[in-house]
Every structure is written in structure tokens, then in C-alpha cells.
Amino acid sequence: MEKILELISKEVSAAFEAAGFDAELGKVTLSNRPDLCEYQCNGAMAGAKKYGKAPFMIADAVAEKLQGSEIFSSVESVKPGFLNLKVSEDFVRGYIVKMLHEHHFGIKTPLHAPNFMIDYGGPNVAKPLHVGHLRSAVIGESIKRILKYAGYKVTGDIHLGDWGLQMGLIITELKHRQPDLPYFDKNHTGQYPKEAPFTIGELEEIYPAASAKSKEDEAFKAEAMEATKLLQDGDKGYRALWHHIMNVSVNDLKKNYKNLNVDFDLWRGESDVHEVIPGMVDYMKQHGYAHESQGALVVDVAEETDTKEIPPCMILKSDGASLYNTTDLATIQQRMEEFKPEGLIYVVDKRQELYFTQVFRCARKTKLVLPETELHFVGFGTMNGKDGKPFKTREGGVMRLEKLIAEIDEQMYNRIKEGNQDIDDTEAKDTAHKVALAAIKYGDLSNQPSKDYIFDIDKFTSFEGDTGPYILYTMVRIKSILSKYENEGGNVKEALLRNAESADEKNLMLLLTRFTDAVESAARDLMPNRVCAYIYELSNALNSFYHSTKILTEPDEEKKSGYIALLNVTLKVLETGIDLLGFSAPDRM
Hints:
Blueprint: H1 4-18, E1 29-30, E2 39-41, H2 43-51, H3 55-66, E3 72-78, E4 82-87, H4 89-101, E5 115-119, H5 134-149, E6 153-157, H6 165-177, H7 200-216, H8 218-233, H9 236-259, H10 277-286, E7 290-293, E8 296-299, E9 313-316, H11 324-339, E10 343-349, H12 353-365, E11 374-380, E12 383-384, H13 401-419, H14 425-445, E13 453-454, H15 457-460, H16 468-487, H17 503-512, H18 515-525, H19 529-548, H20 557-581
């Protein structure tokens, strides 16, 4: 479906041509003076020199050709040569009706669905999720949803940290605590126990204890490194224990991500490419891509146009051990072979930009990806507390994500119970969680991903201003009106959209026509904040219309039906918008 701006520009371009000027001068933009007009065209200013005419003469000639156009209710030529345009109410209504009959409101989807993979989340197993994991999960989930809505085929992969030294540390600490476990008996035969020898709570205590011990005890660290090597070399007991660590930890991770309304298509990790690495390293050596430097194996990735030094990408350390680079490159190779994506997107901390520059360049140079494969780094900023420093608990520690969500859930629950004495506990808790998620996710996503932001719980949970709860409150307001209309005998589905009769009504309708622009822009630049900005503007327009219009008390039934239809369309667009951001609305608040 053509954009409303495209249709308007086409009409104005035809008028330029009819008046004897270049059609390309007819490009129309949103007005930067909405108090004067809705759209504007500055083509006459650009054409003055080419045609040797004063801009206002060109504008006058074009305006004359536009008289009688069904698209415009007003065309005004303004000195020194601008065209101020207002679209007709009938045209806007017709456009929205057409949107409603199109797939996804008429968004332009590619004929061939581009196949993309998105790498986000990236937690380490055996460690609890903390607030530092929030941004990757929330931004990645939203980008995945936006791209799918825009017609892409998208596969999301969590890419777990499940194969490094932390595994050796856990195994060694367990061996010290419970040396009689069969996993440490080299003479053990038969099956290993099906039940894990620890709970998630115990596992989350074991890792930090082992990590702290390794920093003070060199012998313990050496033992952990040896355990890591034995695990990776296939020790049966260690592999069996590793499977327990994975099962217990991943089940807990799934529960926590579900609570955040984040879902992954793949739950793969570094361990999944362990067998890929040797062949990839041999390939890089044989083709002359990798060479030795101070004992390590590296690939040079610097380019002549670099304005700063880009160090070589290290493939193996001098002791032959692999690194994160090795694992990430092997993962790229595996993804290309198995899924054949046209693009890979990584949602990670922006401080890793240099690292991913090296990895992406190495992947291109070594032909692990095709020349046309898109490689995107979506680097996000830091989530800070009100003091401007990385967000911490009151005691100064790193806050668990589970605890943060629970705290905001409780805050919202208390507020909802205060305002709705008749609400039952189950509904109150469900509503509280939906509002809490909206507060957290919108608070994050409304910022440009690369920017640091202040995580201000008081601000984010406010029912006023640019917040998730304000968006939900607007939607609940619409739901309430639609429900009352039906209770009074009306039928929302049969309500018919009418031409706008007030400025607030028309402004709301014009904003509805711009929904797909916002989504396409967010998909193109991988910026969910543009969807946030759009639904906030739409919510403001809806509330202005609500305050200036008697909706349910309107005596003219046709008018009332038109208002109800407009509210229903707005609700559908807002529901789609918040779904793209990864949260949903309750029925009341």
C-alpha cells in the first residue's frame, strides 16, 4: 500500500508537470508549521534558478493546477514560494479504511522475505540474570518483532556463555565440596544420576565462591583450567555434570526470560561450535588468512582508510587456547552454513564495538560470510541509576533482574489495589505485572539504543508523560469507552468511520496514517525508539480528542458511531505498537 506522503507527492508532482515544471520538484514533507498547514512543498524554491522565475510565480502556477484535487481541502501559495497543503477529510478517512483492509495496516513488505539472525541476550549459565542483561534482551526482542512485522524471516539466538573457564571453576568447586560424586570417579561405569546434585540456588552460590577462590588461590585456578580442558576434551564424568549444570541453569533462565516476555528461537551456546573450531582454524591457516604473531595465531583486519588503529583479530592464544573471537567466528560459520542468513544482527554493549569490528572484518576477509551478507552491530548504552552511575542495589551491589521486576510488580500492585477496591487479587497481580513490564521496557526502548539512560523507577512508573504506563492508561481508557458503548446497546464492529469534524479528530486520523512509516523506519535503522515516539504521539492525540469531544453523550448516533470507530482503530494500532515493543495492555488499571 502506498504511503499517504507518496500519494500526496504524486499529486503535487503531476501538478508541477502540468504547469510546465520538473515533476521531481513535487516532493511533499510533513509541515514544520502545523499551525498553518499539514503538509508542505518547497519545490518552487528549488526550481526558481533552473526556470529563471520567482519562486512564488512557480508556486502560484502549481497551486492553480491543484484546485479541484480530491486529495486536498486547501492549497495555498505563500511567499517567497512555499505550498501549504491541507488534505481533505474524505481522503484521510478513505485512506484509514483501506489501511484496515490491508495486511499489517498496509506496511510495505519485501517480495522476498530477507532471512536474518539476531544474537541477543548472551547470559552466562550458572549465573543469575542481573540488570545488566536487561538492555540486550529488551532491545533484541523488540528488533526481532519489528523485523518480523515488516516482512523479514528472523531467528533469535540467545548465544549462551556455557563452555569457558566458569564451567571448570564450578566443576572444581563441586569436586572440593563433594569429592564422592560419581562424576569425579575415573573408574565409574554405567549411567550417571539423572538428578542434578544441586539446585539453581546452590549453583548460583557455587560460581561466585569458586571465582573468588581462583583469584586468591593459584593452585585452585590451575585445577579449574585443567577441568575446563578435560570437559572440552570429552571427559565422560565432566560432560555428564556439565549437562546437569546446563539443564538446571537453562530452565531457570527460560523462566526469567518468560517473565520478561522475551523468547528465543534457539538456545545455543559456545559449546555448540566446539567441534567447528579446529576445522575453521585449519581453513584459515591453509588459505593464508591467519599467521603467527608473538606465538599467537592472528588475522590482520586493519584497512587503509582506518582513522584509528584496529589490532589484528586473535584466533588462538600462544598456548593454543581459543578465545571469544574464535567462538564468535565459528558461530558465524555455523549460522551461515545451517541457516544461510542474508544478515546477522548482534545486540551487545556498545563498549564491544572495536571487538565486533575485528570479528566482522575477519569474517569478511576469511570469506566465512558472503560479500553481500549484512553484519549489524547494535551497540547499547549503559542503564544508570539516578546518580548517573551504573544501576545498583541500595547496598551497592548488582541487582538481580528478577528482584527488580518483583519490586516494580509490587509497587504497581499496591497502586492498582488502591485505585480499584473491587479488583480481585489474581487480576490485580496480572495487571500489575503488565504495567511493570510496560514501565521497564518502554523506559528502556524509548531511548535510542546507543545512548546511556537513567533508570528512574518513579518516572518510568508514572501514569503521566512519556512512559509505558501512560500508553497503557490511554488504551484502558479506550477499552472502557468501547465497553460502555456496547453495554448501552452499540456494536463496535459495526461502527463506521466518518470524516473528521474537529481539528483534534483530524489530527488523530492523520497520525493513524503514519503508523507504517514509524515501523518501517524502526526496521530499517534497527531503532525501536521510533515506535515508542510514535505511540506516545498517538496517545497524546487520542487524549486531546477525548478531552475535546463528547463521545458517549453525543446525541447524533451516526457521529457517535464514527467516534467509536476511530477509537477502535486507534486501539488496534496501539495494541500492535506495544506488541512490537514486547508488552501488552490490561483491561483496566
